[in-house]
Backbone:
C-alpha cells in the first residue's frame, strides 16, 4: 500500500490534485481519507462554544484515530471513517466504510504537521497557491457549501485562517517531497506526481510477482 499525504493552505487546490490522482489510476485503486473527517468529537461542548473553537490548529484533529485507521488499512482491514457536520461543528453518527486500496491519499491543511502521521507517508506533497487566490476560493466554497455569509468567511480568514496558516501550515512545507506551485492548475507538476505514483505501483507489482 502506498500512502500519500497532500497538504496545503485552505483553498490551495488540494481537492483538484487528489481528483487528478484518482483519474490517473484504474478505478477502485485509490481510497481518500480527508483530514476534515477526523476533527475531534466536540458534541459534549455547547454549540455556541463549538462555533468559536479554532479548527485550523493541529490540536483540533484526532490524529491517533487517523493513524490507527491507516494502520488497519495497511493490515488489510476495512475501516469506518467518521463524518463531520460543519454547521454544528460536531461529528455525525454516520460513518463511511473505507476498504484497503493500493493507494491511500490523506488530504488536509495540517497533514504534514503531525510527526507520527508524517512518518507513515510514502510521498508527502504540499499544494501551494497565492493567498489572494486561496481567499477567493474559501469565500466561494464556504458560502455555497457551508452556508456562511461572505463577511463571516472574511472575519474568520483574518482572525483564524491567516494566522494559523502562517504558524502551522506554511512551515510544514519543508517536510514535503514535492511542492506544487499554482495549486491545482499546475498540470506539469500534477503529471509528474501521477507518473511517479504509477511508477511506484508498477515497481511494487513487479517485486510482488518476481
Residues:
Amino acid at each position: 500500500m502506498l500512502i500519500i499525504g497532500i497538504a496545503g493552505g485552505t483553498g490551495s487546490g488540494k481537492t483538484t490534485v487528489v481528483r487528478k490522482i484518482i483519474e490517473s489510476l484504474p478505478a477502485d485503486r485509490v481510497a481518500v481519507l480527508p483530514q476534515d473527517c477526523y476533527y475531534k468529537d466536540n458534541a459534549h461542548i455547547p454549540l455556541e462554544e463549538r462555533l468559536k473553537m479554532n479548527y485550523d490548529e493541529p490540536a483540533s484533529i484526532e490524529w491517533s484515530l487517523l493513524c490507527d485507521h491507516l494502520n488497519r488499512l495497511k493490515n488489510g482491514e476495512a475501516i469506518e471513517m467518521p463524518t463531520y457536520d460543519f454547521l454544528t461543528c460536531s461529528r455525525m453518527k454516520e460513518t463511511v466504510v473505507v476498504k484497503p486500496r493500493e493507494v491511500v491519499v490523506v488530504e488536509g491543511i495540517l497533514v504534514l504537521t503531525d510527526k507520527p502521521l508524517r512518518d507513515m507517508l510514502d510521498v508527502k506533497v504540499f499544494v501551494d497557491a497565492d493567498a489572494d487566490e486561496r481567499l477567493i476560493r474559501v469565500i466561494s466554497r464556504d458560502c455555497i457549501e457551508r452556508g456562511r455569509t461572505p463577511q463571516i468567511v472574511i472575519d474568520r480568514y483574518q482572525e483564524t485562517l491567516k494566522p494559523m496558516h502562517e504558524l502551522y501550515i506554511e512551515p510544514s512545507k519543508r517536510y514535503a517531497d514535492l511542492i506544487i506551485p499554482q495549486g491545482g492548475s499546475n498540470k506539469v507538476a500534477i503529471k509528474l506526481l501521477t507518473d511517479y505514483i504509477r511508477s511506484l505501483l508498477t515497481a511494487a507489482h513487479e517485486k510482488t510477482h518476481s
About this structure: The radius of gyration is 17 Å. Residues 77 and 97 are 11 Å apart (CA to CA). Residues 187-209 form the longest helix (23 residues).
